[in-house]
Amino acid sequence: MTTIAQALQQATGRLARHESARLDAEVLLMHILEKSRSHLHAWPEQALTAAQQAQFEALLVRRAAGEPVAHLTGQREFWSLPLAVTADTLIPRPDTEILVEQVLAVLPGDRPLRVADLGTGSGAVALALAQERRRWQVFALDRSPAAIRVAQGNATRLLTGPRPAFLVGHWCDALATASLDAMASNPPYVCNNDPHLHRGDVPFEPRTALVAGADGLDAIRHLIDAAGRVLVPGGWLFLEHAPEQTADIYNLLKNKGFIDAGSALDLAGRERVSYARRPH
After folding, report:
1. What is the pLDDT of residue 177?
2. Nearest to 186, CA basis, from 247, 252, 125
3. N or C: fewer beta carbons within 10 Å in the chain?
4. Is 110 found in the same domain as 161?
């Protein structure tokens, strides 16, 4: 029988072309054994059953072919929430937690606000906000009915308090004029010909959640335009984007009359989230 230590060593070698080979192997084995990482380290001599070995082998073959770990396990943690993810949703990234942090830092938490997460996907941002601010009415919107079903399932499974209202629609089309105190979005912001579209997990994710025209700003332009319609006077807009897009986004916000613009840095020290306010 193969032990945990042997299985991890062999798997790490087979996944060597991935930068996260050891981590990937551990996450897949944790998934199969339904155990924590500490269990793997505490019991390295534990033998895998024949069935567990077969399951591990099947997942390794798929991971070696490039399939994302989150798709293999059906889960990715975001804001301490173990979110279900599928091929219909973007895999939540740690940098998007910066978006959540900025919304929580800028908006008052002691008032009943109406806040929307546009392009919610798995529901990551909407669920994090609903969990942290139970007095807020959170809306989660996506044009994909399949993504909305995933997000609704996550809310049902993970939230004990008020859940977001889930709406299917193209960006803000399902929202009333001047109805929101804030909008937050991790929209598509990758250029059509960006080489990153062919690397890592990205080829397995929905292209519509990633690509936004020749300069990657098509969705952001639409959201800035729509924000002027659906935000109340004084309402805030929060956008995740590529660091090199910051100056262009500031100009777009300024040209639409937004004020008090600012940016927040991601984990690598790059401008990743920009925000601004509709004037009163």
Report:
1. 80
2. 125
3. C
4. yes
Q: What is the DSSP code (8-state) at residue 211? A: B
Taking only the tens place, the pLDDT of each residue in 186-215 is: 998 766 666 665 566 666 666 666 655 667
Token pair 């009333």 is found at 176
Closest CA to 78 of 90, 66, 68, 67: 90
72's enclosing H/E stretch is helix 69-73
Residue from 172, 82, 170 nearest 128 by CA: 82
CATH number at residue 222: 3.40.50.150
- The closest of 184, 188, 230 to 205, measured between CA atoms, is 188
* Inside any domain, residue 70: no
DSSP state of 137: E
Question: Which residues in the chain come in under a pLDDT of 50?
Answer: none
**Conformational region of residue 148, where left means phi above 0, alpha means psi within -120 to 50, and beta covers everything else:** alpha
Run of H or E residues at 276: strand 271-277
Q: Residue for token digits 């994710």?
A: 205
pTM surpassing 0.90?
A: no
The verdict on 248 and 126 lying in the same domain is: yes
Write out the H or E segment, with its range, that includes residue 124.
Answer: helix 124-132
Q: Can you tell me the distance from the alpha carbon of 97 to that of 79, in angstroms, rounded to the nearest whole number?
A: 7
168 with 60, same domain: the answer is no
Identify the pLDDT of residue 19: 80
How many structural domains are present in the chain? Answer: 2
Rounded distance, CA 103 to CA 138, Å? 12
Task: Classify strands 137-142 and 114-118 as parallel, antiparallel or unpaired.
Answer: parallel
Give the domain CATH number at 55: 1.10.8.10
Q: CA 116, CA 218: separation in Å to the nearest integer?
A: 19
